From TrEMBL:
Organism: Streptomyces griseoviridis
Keyword Nucleotide-binding assigned: yes
Domain HTH luxR-type: 841-906
Domain of life: Bacteria
Cross-referenced Gene3D superfamilies: P-loop containing nucleotide triphosphate hydrolases, Winged helix-like DNA-binding domain superfamily/Winged helix DNA-binding domain
GO MF term set: adenylate cyclase activity; ATP binding; DNA binding
Entry's Gene Ontology BP terms: regulation of DNA-templated transcription
Record PROSITE patterns: HTH_LUXR_1 (PS00622), HTH_LUXR_2 (PS50043)
PANTHER family in the record: TESTICULAR SOLUBLE ADENYLYL CYCLASE, TRANSCRIPTIONAL ACTIVATOR DOMAIN
InterPro entries with a match to the protein in the record: AAA_16, P-loop_NTPase, Sig_transdc_resp-reg_C-effctor, Tscrpt_reg_LuxR_C, WH-like_DNA-bd_sf
Name recorded for this polypeptide: Transcriptional regulator
């Protein structure tokens, strides 16, 4: 392939194609101003790839389209849809719903995985080039999928190649592309070569004037080389300040002006109906009194071509110039004619909306139906746009307010927080019907729960709102929001909490199952509950219909269990959420639940299970844009890595957590990060630093309570035993209300470490008694280590060896290397020879990554690759790759051997 003046870019694309052919796929974004030669460059690359055996898949953005979402994705994947049965069931369903089938819409992540899976299937039969032209005009849902794919192409023999204008690069999308290829204006020598190629009859002075005027833009050079005005006219400094795109549009308009009036109108039909078939365009033109022959002069001039059942402009700027230069009345007539003939109902509605110049309730109602249908397909950005257009056409203030509220909720679901906040502000003064008032408050509350963009309503405001409502379901829900606010912000006065409790206990209010559940959760969060609702009770109410707000309520229920120091109950709630939201295809909520469960598992020292949850949560949070969730997962990963003595990995995870947290980290994230930092400091013998970090973790009591269990050890070593007093008081008070054996062990162990030598034994022995009644094997092992150290100092050597040996077995089984080394040293000091572990004992947890171990465990339980893919949000081929790697590391060669190979794995 060869393009004048683009030799280095051609070489770069050739290298990327060569790497893709060898299985090292990639992605590249080619960008530059209009007419700079993006299409020429990628077309040359694609032609070269196609001639050397690559399969080519392509789609292109069209200005003014993208009404219902995923149109571009359908165009891209259409040649592969016969392979859809190869996808896992959830991914297949997600893609089918995105393309219009009935069903629950999936999060965009699942749709992206489905697209990725189809590309993998195709790439298994030969290398691929995936071409996406004019990314800036692609429907937003497809553009999101394209950038999702761009970050994942390295695992297959494929190159994803996209073009966009440099002034339209999305800052959150372009970083996903591995390579960025900017196209600058051509230098003078290359520009002269291009002019000589296209207009050899021009004299040297004419070529030089043209090159000066075109400013290195290849399209301008080729378009203007046949124009006397541009060849012979003098370049103007004032003219040079006009953007090249506008100058090119003006030159195209000059060409259009030479055409007959009927042909100019025919070109406008093509410009307004660029997403329409040639049959629809010609039929609409006849409705305006035009004939097919009226298109001929434009084809003769080369402004349009007819091929593949559609009209295409010579360059997109031609269509822009024609459409933008037409007056609104003529455009309205054209859109009206197109609306009458286009087959697709969604596109017809868009044309009717474009034809309206004032209010029109009939079209607004059609747009509302379009918004609902689009949302059901998972194209939430396009749904929000349809709602906003419906608002603009709605004449009745009450109905306009209702649609504005719905537009705000659609924008929230699409992640457009700023748009949602602005729409709520518009709707709030005029929202009148009760349903709109409640929906507005619900959207407002959910935005305030997940961002700092919108201040949420105070507890007294929510109480007043509840009293103004007539529906008991809505009353209880609003009061529950007040309780959640009290829990998360910790800023409600005792009087407001009492008022919330009084409202919730009003006779006759909480009579249905859902109302009773919400009341129980709310009362628990404000400290007024007689008991916490059970997981079974909660699920029996929530399973029939999972509402948008239920995730936050379930999260708060899990937190309430954690506040009651019941980690087992908290884990059961989080696990129920993971299952519930996975089955209802709510991946974002599932990711939050994975992070919550991973944190609780870490607190309970179930390290391998917690690490698997948090690594999956971190991966999903990056795909879903959930930075706070990612920060929480990264902090928990750092804690696990520090326990295992993987200090460099722990430090890297802490860096990720800090980066994702921003300037104001959530208290829970900061507490876990401080705990991880304390463990790192202890590993390095920096006991004073460890004390400082653990004291910081106590600023979030649910985390600090468990983190502080290790405070006495480092505080005594740092010569600061007084630093333990605050934690000991907090833990003693918590123990009085919970009766937790694990907490009792930590309290007794702390007292032992702080006791004079003669009084420590009783505390240690009571600590071990409590520990043996709990499931906290690592904390029990630590207690045995500390007791063994004390016993050795007191010359009770044989007794010390027993406790130290038991502790060492646990630490080695759980791969907590720093504690294992410390225990081994203590055993050696006690005169014991450390037993050598048999080389035949093979611990899978020591050799597999967390994701490989997760995949292997599911495979051992009998799940197929496709079922595992659905469970872990991977493609089934990625699952196969993980299993292949696991087999090699475990020294096995078939699935049936996994159960025995994993038998020695410890959590």
């Amino acid at each position: 392939m060869y393009v004048i003046g683009r030799e280095s870019q051609v070489d770069q694309l050739s290298a990327l194609l060569g790497a893709a052919r060898e299985g090292r796929g990639s992605s590249a974004l080619v960008y530059g101003e209009a007419g700079i030669g993006k299409s020429s460059l990628v077309s040359a690359a694609v032609d070269a790839a196609s001639s050397s055996g690559f399969q080519v898949l392509s789609c292109h953005g069209i200005r003014g389209t993208g009404a219902v979402g995923y149109e571009g994705l359908h165009e891209l994947l259409l040649p592969l849809l016969h392979r859809v049965e190869a996808l896992s069931p959830r991914q297949r369903t997600a893609l089918e719903v995105a393309f219009g089938a009935e069903g629950e819409p999936a999060d965009r992540l699942v749709t992206g995985l489905a697209a990725f899976g189809l590309l993998e299937e195709a790439a298994a039969h030969g290398p691929l080039v995936v071409l996406v032209e004019d990314l800036h005009w692609l429907d937003v849902s497809t553009a999101d999928i394209v950038t999702f794919l761009a970050a994942r192409m390295s695992v297959m023999p494929a190159l994803l190649l996209a073009t966009t204008r440099d002034d339209r690069i999305y800052p959150d999308r372009s970083p996903r592309f591995k390579h960025h290829i900017p196209l600058d204006p051509l230098g003078q020598d290359d520009a002269l070569r291009l002019v000589a190629l296209h207009a050899p009859a021009l004299t040297v002075p004419q070529r030089q004037r043209l090159v000066e005027r075109a400013m290195g833009n290849p399209l301008a050079l080729t378009e203007w080389s046949t124009s006397t005005a541009h060849v012979d006219g003098a370049a103007s400094a004032e003219r040079g300040r006009v953007p090249m795109g506008k100058r090119l549009e003006d030159s195209f308009l000059a060409e259009v002006a030479l055409l007959p009036p009927a042909t100019r109108q025919a070109l406008l039909v093509v410009a307004a109906g660029q997403d329409s078939s040639s049959h629809e365009v010609l039929t609409a033109a006849r409705g305006l009194g035009l004939e097919q022959s009226d298109f001929a002069p434009a084809e003769t001039f080369g402004l349009i071509t007819l091929g593949n059942d559609s009209f295409r402009f010579r360059h997109p700027l031609v269509g822009s110039a024609v459409y933008d230069n037409a007056d609104s009345h003529v455009r309205s007539q054209v859109h009206t004619s197109l609306a009458a003939v286009v087959v697709d109902p969604a596109r017809a509605v868009q044309h009717r909306a474009a034809a309206v110049t004032g209010w029109d309730e009939n079209v607004a109602a059609e747009l509302e139906r379009l918004a609902v249908a689009t949302g059901r397909r998972g194209a939430r950005t396009e749904a929000a746009a349809a709602w906003r257009r419906a608002v603009a056409l709605t004449p009745a203030p009450r109905e306009r307010a209702r649609r504005t509220v719905m537009a705000a909720e659609a924008a929230r679901q699409a992640g457009a927080t700023a748009d949602a906040v602005a729409l709520l502000a518009r709707a709030k003064p005029s929202a009148a019907d009760e349903a709109s008032v409640v929906q507005l408050a619900r959207t407002e509350w959910m935005l305030a729960s997940t961002s700092t963009t919108l201040p949420d309503r105070g507890g007294d405001e929510l109480i007043a709102l509840s009293r103004a409502l007539s529906d008991p379901d809505d009353q209880v829900e609003v009061l529950t929001w007040a309780a959640v606010r009290s829990y998360t912000r910790q800023d409600l006065s005792t009087e407001v909490k009492a008022a919330v409790a009084e409202e919730l206990r009003r006779p006759g209010l909480a009579v249905t199952g859902r109302q009773r559940l919400l009341r129980s959760i709310a009362l628990a969060l404000i400290g007024s509950a007689d008991r916490l609702p059970s997981v079974e009770e909660a699920l029996s109410v929530l399973r029939p219909q999972v509402r948008e707000t239920d995730a936050t309520l379930m999260n708060c229920l899990a937190f309430a269990f954690e506040d009651a120091h019941d980690l087992e109950g908290a884990e059961r709630v989080w696990s129920a959420e993971v299952d519930l939201f996975h089955r209802s295809a709510r991946t974002s909520d599932e990711t939050v639940a994975l992070a919550g469960r991973g944190t609780v598992r870490m607190n309970a020292h179930a390290i391998a299970a917690g690490l698997a949850d948090c690594e999956q949560g971190l991966r999903l949070s990056a795909d879903l844009g959930l930075s706070v969730v990612g920060a929480l997962c990264a902090a928990s990963i750092a804690l696990a890595r520090a326990w295992r003595g993987e200090d460099s990995l722990a430090t890297a995870a802490l860096g990720t957590s800090t980066e994702l947290s921003g300037l104001a980290p959530f208290a829970r994230v900061a507490a876990i990060a401080s705990w991880a930092s304390a463990e790192l400091a202890a590993n390095e013998g920096r006991h004073e630093d460890a004390v400082v970090h653990l004291l910081r973790s106590m600023e979030h009591p649910p985390i600090g309570l468990w983190a502080g269990g290790g405070l006495a050890d480092v505080a005594v070593r740092a010569g600061r035993p007084e630093a333990v007093e605050g934690w000991l008081g907090m833990a003693t008070a918590a123990l009085a209300s919970s009766g937790s054996d694990r907490l009792a062990m930590l309290v007794e162990r702390t007292r032992a470490l702080l006791s004079p030598d003669g009084g420590a034994r009783d505390h240690f022995e009571r600590a071990i008694e409590h520990g043996e009644r709990s499931s906290a094997v690592l904390d029990l092992a630590r207690t045995r280590l500390f007791f063994g150290e004390w016993l050795r100092r007191e010359r009770h050597i044989m007794e010390a060896r027993g406790h130290l040996s038991a502790a060492l077995h646990v630490f080695e089984s759980h791969h907590t290397a720093p504690l294992a080394r410390r225990t081994a040293r203590e055993l050696a000091a006690a005169g014991s020879v450390r037993p050598t572990r048999s080389p035949q004992v093979f611990d899978a947890g020591a050799v597999l990554t967390a994701q490989e171990l997760h995949v292997a465990r599911l495979a051992a339980e009998g799940y197929s690759n496709k079922q595992i893919a659905d469970q872990l949000y991977l493609s089934h081929r990625t699952v196969g790759a993980h299993l292949y790697s696991a087999y090699a590391k475990l020294q096995i060669n078939r699935r049936a051997q996994l159960t025995s190979a994993l038998a020695a794995t410890h959590d």
